[in-house]
Amino acid sequence: MATYKVFTTNELAKRIQACTHEQFTGLLSVTDTQNQTWSFSFHQGYLIGGTGGVHTIRRWCRQLLEYCPRLPLETAYYGSDRFQYCDYDSLAKLVMLGKVEQKQMAAVIEANITEIFFDIIQQGEQLYSGSEKQPIFEQIPRNTKNSQLALVPANRALHKASQIWEDWQQAGLLDVSPNMAPVILQARELRRQTSPLAYDNLTTLADGNRTFRDLALKLKQNLLPLTQSIMPYVRKGLISLSEVADFNLKHPSSQTVNQTSATITSSSISSVPPQKSNATKRSRPTAPLIACIDDSRLDSEMMSQLLTQSGYRCLSILDPLQALVELLEYKPDLIFLDLVMPVVNGYEVCAQIRRISIFKETPVIILTSNDGIVDRVRAKMVGSTGFLAKPIATEKVLKILQRHLPASKYL
Prior knowledge:
The chain is α/β, with parallel strands linked by helices. The protein has 3 domains: 2-170, no CATH class; 181-242; 261-410, Rossmann fold. The protein has 15 helices and 13 strands. Helix 13 (346-354) links the parallel strand 11 and strand 12 (364-368). The model is unreliable at 1-7, 74-82, 250-261 and 266-284 (pLDDT under 50).
């Protein structure tokens, strides 16, 4: 693993170029001073995926709507609580089934990565201009699979994002995030100052639930001129900009469970827009999120049922090769990790987890039926917090959770 400080956009470009020239295969992640994380998957120097930031699911779904219009996504994008095509592997399977063309998949991947690059650049310009605090990049080698369908030249995606950012700055939108959602404040005055068509579009769509990027897609307009057309009304106080939550990602139905390598149960995983404090009313924070990395579907489902019935949220990861990507995206409070898995074992995954700075203190509990002293010693050597023997017993799991997750944090 290599760790770098990123001081400028040019330095970011150098790190991306280094991964290309080294023909790097693995995960490249960046975490800013506000604990926001993005990650990029590389295969032999080419990008094959990106995730993280404020709108992981919303962003991905937007690219699918744009480049895979035949997929049944309209309902999912505008309000459904289920979304099944949420990662590289699920989209690759659609290509294999002939439901999506390979060039469409490549377009989705590249557009998704380009948006992420733009967000990182804008965030960096706002947070780190003249500041001594810098985000941290971490380079984590790992195996990849199904990686030949969509290989995106990293420099090309970064160049596109940099050009969009340059145009964005020149338009005077330095501090305006395309992830913000316009919402009408003064409808009567807005109607007086706009054309009937513009007013109808604004009142229908500018409801605080659609970002600038969402509106551009819905209206089939270019993002920059659309944002420029709305900003005068924002500056006049007729329209305000608000943060908007990501779409919910809930446990898929039994018909779609095989299409994803990770599923979340019990509660949605999404960013929540900030709310005004209320001294007379205390709301209960989100329940702890527990990750279970286990290639056994039966054991994974047992653990998921046990956790959700006990009031926890569960992130089930069946594919250990996808574990780091999912962990970086959702940042669980505790991780259960199976020891015996194909391709990569629990020791190797645990060592990779411990190389990532944000997981230095996260409890990692090794699951195995081989409860021997040698296994325990080796598990400790790679950084595991504890050991749990299979078969899974409810009482033992709950004791571990109570020991490692302070109840006061979630009350």
